[in-house]
Each structure stands twice: as C-alpha cells, then as structure tokens.
Design goal:
Radius of gyration: 24 Å
Oligomer: single chain
Number of strands: 17
Number of helices: 17
Distance between the termini: 19 Å
Shape: globular
Structural class: alpha+beta
Helix content: 40-55%
Strand order of the largest sheet: 8-9-10-14-13-12-11
C-alpha cells in the first residue's frame, strides 16, 4: 500500500475487485481492453496500451530511481530503433515487483520488473529480455491473442515469472528479440543465459523445473534456453560497447535495488500488517490469505467466502468522504444504512449494505490527515462478521516496538576473496540468501570458485527508516 495515493477514478472498491479476480478475470477488463479482432489497428492498440499501462503502474507501482530508469530506457531505445513493423513510440518502465517478470502491452509499452533486474547478471541479458518484449509489441501478438491487453495484464499480476504467450508466439518473440539484440550490438546468447538462470531459480524454489508436456503451450525455461543458445550460434553480430560495460558495470546499476517486497508499501509480520510510512498497523485473522498492493492491503478467508481490505479513501471529513463514495457506487449497492461508531478514540462512520450478492461493512475513519476505509464483505456474514469486526478494531497507530520490526532486503555488491566458494562467501558476508540461491542470482554453479576481487551480488536485511514526509 503506497503512501499518499488518492485516486478519485478508483470507483469500484478494492474488496469487490479482489473477490472478482479470485473467481475470474473482471468482465470490465475483458470488455474495455480487448482489441476488436481484425479491426484492431496499431493506433487503437496504442490507445489501449496507454490505458492498461496506467492500470499496471497503479496496481504494481513503479521503480522511480532516476539512474536505474534512465538506464533501462537507454537500453530499450537502443533496441527499439531496429524494431520491425509500425513505429510505435516505445516506452519502458520498471514495475516495483520482486519476482522476475516482464510483459509488453499493446502499442509498445514494455515493462520489466525490479526482480528481473536483480536476477539478470549483465546488460546483455537484460537487453535480450527487453528485445523479446519489444518483439511481442512489434509483431502485434496482443491482437493475435484476441484480448491479451486485459488477460495478459491480469496474468502479469498473478504469475511470478515471465508472463508467457503460447508456444509459437514465445518462440517468434525469442527469435526476433535475439535479432534485435544482435543488430543493436548485444550478444544474442544473452537470451539463453537469462532463461537458464530463470530455470535455475525455478528449480531452487520448486525443487525442480516444470516438466514439459505435449500440450504445454508455455515452453519451459530450460527448453527455451536450449533453443535460444542454439539460435544464437547462427546469428551474425558485431559488438557495440555496452552502456554500463561488463558484469561489474551492470552490478553497479542494480546495487541498492530492493529484493522482494518494498517496506515503503508496508510489510506483513505474520498476520499483522505494518506500514511505517503511514504509521499504522492492522491485524488480519490467522489463516487468511493476505495480499498487499500499492492501492490496498487485504485478506481472503480460507473458504473464500469473505474478504477484508484497507485503503485510503480521501481527505477531510469522513462524512463527506462517505457521501462521495456512496455516489460513486451508484446502484451497485442496496439495503444501505449508516452507523456511527468510535474508532481510535474518534468518531467514525460505518456503511452497511449489500452488493453483488455479498453483505458488506465499510468503516471510514480519519487518521493522520487521511480518511481510511476498512471494508469487509462476505457471502456468509453471520459466520464471518466477528472476524471482520476484529480486523476493524485492530487498526491503530504504529508503536516504536513494531517499527523496529520493519526491515527490507537490498542488493549489495561485494568483492570475493581468492578461492572463495558460495558457502564460504555466504558465511563471511551474512547475506540472507542461501549458498545455492546466491549462486543462482549470480549466474554461477554452486561449486564455482570465485576469483580475487570478483564482484558478487548478495542480499542483506536492513532496518527500514520511514520517509520523512510521512511522519509530518
């Protein structure tokens, strides 16, 4: 949940969206974001992509470090000038997502995740991935899929790794992307190297890589890596100096990137959510599935029959915010009535009603200059009302003791000692990564013997300092 985000266009409450996504892709996304078959043109796709790109930025958040952003844009522009087809005004953004991911939206909007940059080990690897996504846009694969603007976006939010198209489209994007990398002066083998690293990460986290089947429409990273390596050997290319040369140059760019979830959006300590910047905490029921995004934080019951969330609703008098919210909902809600109550030692307002077959309770309370809405919805309110009530009552100011428990992980670059291995380096540096994980993130085998002065990525856990603006 991001600090100071008051989006008046957010007319449907987050609990409704969350429940809908848990069941199926929202109908509105399918209707509004789907290219109309053969009638879709590059211009209409660009308009569509711009709208969905704004949603992606709002849902996932963007990395705003100017040096890192400029670096990715420079790589993207170097590749895009060679892109085939319609001359889109390509845009390149970094989503603030810890998992390695990348996706292209219609019209030339290319996103890579912060986690993908952390996993990559060279500018060449990153360039090949960006080239792959440019290829999806240039070849208009979104139109070929009949609606990837909506479906692909939802998939990008849900899947931890590269958001895949079907086998044929992925293969063609790999091929064209490697070609773009080659003509831009990057070694096309970088695609195979990156996919190999992605496969190793999957193996580490899942115990094995995915097993390919005859009807598997999403090629495994291992098979794509092998194909990309073979294809690279057939592509002629002339090297052009990298923007940030070599492994050491690339590591300078990723030094300091957050690993995993950013504390600025709040963190979970078990079922308790801690937001240091906004100075509040709230506790969700044990066993409920929690989720945090730049817009809201919430939890889904084990039986999926109840959902509760907290989000910023506006500023000023809670009654005025309630009136505006009710007007925004229109005829979506019925059996509506308001209940006054006390929360955090101050007056609050609870709105009770029904929407889409669910009973809901939305509590509006003012805290540190903002009005928050805590919304609980259930298809079985008699069973879940006590849980939802407990969540609402748990909302309170952050304490110093809780603040001390807020940490985040960051990439740091260290120099290896001569003859050091990853087990000994992990012990010496105190990285939170296990030896095998550290090896994967550095693109090495576990038994790799490091050279003196060799740069190595590690992840360290550091206390989080709230942003000064949030404490005023």
């Amino acid at each position: 949940m991001r600090r100071s985000r008051f989006d008046r266009s957010w007319t449907v409450s987050i609990w409704f969206v969350a429940v809908a996504v848990a069941v199926a892709i929202p109908a509105a996304a399918q209707e509004d974001e789907r290219p109309r078959g053969s009638l879709a043109t590059p211009r209409t796709e660009q308009d569509l992509g711009r709208r969905v790109a704004a949603q992606a930025a709002a849902q996932l958040g963007l990395v705003e470090d100017p040096d890192v952003v400029a670096y990715v844009e420079a790589i993207g522009k170097r590749l895009a000038r060679h892109a085939p087809g319609y001359r889109y005004g390509y845009e390149f953004r970094i989503v603030d997502q810890g998992a390695p991911n990348a996706f292209a939206l219609p019209g030339g909007f290319v996103f890579i995740s912060r986690g993908l940059m952390v996993l990559s080990n060279s500018e060449t690897e990153l360039a090949n991935v960006i080239g792959h996504e440019i290829a999806h846009a240039a070849l208009r694969h979104s139109a070929a899929k009949q609606g990837v603007g909506g479906v692909g976006f939802v998939r990008a939010l849900q899947q931890p790794f590269l958001a895949a198209y079907g086998r044929d489209l992925e293969t063609s994007a790999d091929r064209v992307g490697q070609g773009l990398a080659a003509v831009a002066g990057y070694d096309p083998v970088g695609m195979g190297v990156f996919l190999g690293g992605l496969d190793q990460l999957e193996r580490f986290r899942r115990g094995r890589s995915r097993i390919p089947g005859f009807l598997d429409t999403h090629p495994t990273s291992a098979s794509r890596s092998n194909e990309a390596h073979a294809r690279a050997g057939l592509i002629a290319w002339e090297p052009v100096p990298e923007i940030s040369p070599g492994r050491a140059g690339y590591y300078e760019k990723v030094d300091g990137l957050i690993v995993g979830d950013p504390a600025a959006q709040g963190v979970f300590d078990g079922p308790r959510f801690l937001h240091a910047d906004l100075a509040f905490t709230i506790r969700f029921p044990d066993g409920w599935r929690t989720q945090n995004s730049p817009r809201a934080v919430g939890a889904l019951s084990p039986r999926r029959d109840a959902w509760v969330s907290l989000e910023t609703a506006g500023r000023g008098d809670p009654l005025d915010v309630v009136d505006e919210w009710i007007q925004q909902q229109g005829d979506q809600i019925r059996d509506l009535h308001l209940e006054p109550l006390r929360l955090l030692g101050r007056d609050a307002v609870r709105v009770v009603g029904r929407a889409q077959g669910l009973a809901f309770r939305a509590t509006f309370v003012s805290f540190r200059g903002a009005v928050y809405r805590i919304t609980g919805a259930s298809s079985n309110m008699s069973k879940n009302e006590a849980f939802l009530h407990q969540v609402t009552r748990s909302f309170r100011p952050m304490t110093r003791e809780l603040l001390a428990r807020v940490t985040e992980r960051k990439v740091r670059i260290v120099e290896a000692n001569a003859g050091e291995t990853f087990p000994t380096l992990v012990e010496r540096t105190g990285t939170v990564w296990a030896p095998a994980e550290a090896a994967v993130y550095n693109g090495r085998k576990l038994d790799h013997v490091l050279e003196a002065g060799e740069p190595v990525k590690i992840a360290i856990e550091v206390p989080y300092t709230p942003q000064a603006a949030a404490s005023r």
